[in-house]
């Protein structure tokens, strides 16, 4: 049985994350939760989870401190950090504390599925919803979406000819590679516009568009509005 521990100090976010993981994994996993840094250290020792989703900002001990203790006690435990702050220094600290991945809250379903796929075999829900190729494609895009990647390079990276790769992408997703790659970048950008104070140009660079004007053009073509307008609408609609 897969054992996962979710450490998050916000009760609603903690419950939501646990619920989403259960919906993906079904009966194949034990999902435990912890509300602060001390509790996650205690729960980890009791449950001995294979994977911990660790919030960085928590009472008593922050996630980085808790992770260092857990990694000393159980070096084989996988650690994925969660934070609402898209800051490079947080990411560096997370990796130095033994983290193997870093997700910006709120993590999307695709991010969760890709993370689970990274550490475990294909889960029952993933097997139903995605082909092995699509799962591999989503993991690859997650790892490379910030880079300037041409179809030929993507195909070579996955060990396929450009023609065969293109056909596989279309069959699995209903989109061309460029459409799929761009849609992934735009979803990342939308979440960062809503959950961070990054400027539009910073958001664009963080998802692979160093030219701010071009990022705005691509974003508008995908969503029907500019990044600034999208951020304003989301803020007005937030409770």
Secondary structure layout plus pairing:
Layout: E1 2-7, H1 11-25, E2 29-34, H2 37-47, E3 51-55, H3 63-73, E4 78-83, H4 88-96, E5 101-104, H5 109-119, H6 124-129, H7 132-144, H8 151-157, H9 162-173, H10 177-195, H11 200-206, H12 212-223, H13 227-237
Parallel strand pairs: 1-2, 1-3, 3-4, 4-5
Helix pairs in contact: 2-3, 5-7, 8-9, 10-13, 11-12
Q: Quick gist of this model?
A:
This protein has 239 residues and is an alpha/beta fold. 60% of the residues lie in helices and 11% in strands. Residues 123-128 have low confidence and may be disordered.
Main traits of this protein?
single chain, about 240 residues, alpha/beta, Rossmann fold, Arc Repressor Mutant, subunit A, globular
**Describe the biggest sheet?**
5 strands, parallel
Here the CATH topology of the largest domain equals Rossmann fold
Tally of separate domains: 2
Helix content: 55-70%
Rounded mean pLDDT is: 84
Inertia-based shape: globular
Oligomer description: single chain
What is the CATH C-level name of the largest domain?
Alpha Beta
What Rg, in angstroms, do the CA atoms define?
Answer: 19 Å
**Unreliable runs, pLDDT <50, ≥5 residues?**
123-128
- Tell me what the CATH architecture of the largest domain is: 3-Layer(aba) Sandwich
Physical arrangement of strands within the biggest beta sheet: 2-1-3-4-5
Order of helices and strands: EHEHEHEHEHHHHHHHHH
What is the number of helices?
Answer: 13
Structural class: alpha/beta
Total strands: the figure is 5
Q: Strand share of the residues?
A: 5-15%
């Amino acid at each position: 049985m897969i054992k996962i521990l979710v450490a998050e100090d916000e009760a609603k976010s903690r419950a939501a994350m646990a619920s989403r993981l259960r919906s993906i994994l079904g009966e194949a996993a034990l999902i435990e939760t912890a509300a602060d840094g001390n509790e996650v250290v205690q729960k980890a020792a009791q449950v001995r989870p294979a994977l911990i989703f660790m919030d960085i900002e928590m009472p008593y001990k922050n996630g980085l401190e808790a992770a260092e203790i857990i990694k000393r006690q159980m070096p084989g435990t996988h650690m994925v950090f969660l934070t609402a702050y898209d800051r490079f220094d947080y990411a560096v600290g997370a990796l130095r504390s033994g983290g193997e991945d870093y997700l910006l809250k709120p993590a999307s379903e695709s991010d969760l599925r890709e993370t689970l796929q990274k550490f475990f075999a294909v889960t029952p829900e993933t097997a139903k919803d995605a082909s092995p190729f699509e799962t591999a494609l989503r993991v690859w895009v997650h790892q490379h979406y910030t880079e300037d990647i041409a179809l030929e390079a993507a195909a070579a990276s996955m060990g396929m000819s450009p023609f065969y790769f293109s056909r596989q992408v279309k069959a699995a997703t209903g989109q061309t590679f460029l459409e799929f790659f761009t849609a992934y970048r735009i979803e990342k950008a939308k979440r960062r516009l809503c959950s961070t104070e990054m400027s539009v140009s910073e958001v664009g660079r963080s998802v692979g568009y160093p030219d701010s004007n071009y990022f705005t053009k691509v974003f508008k073509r995908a969503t029907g509005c500019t990044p600034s307008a999208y951020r304003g609408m989301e803020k007005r609609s937030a409770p």
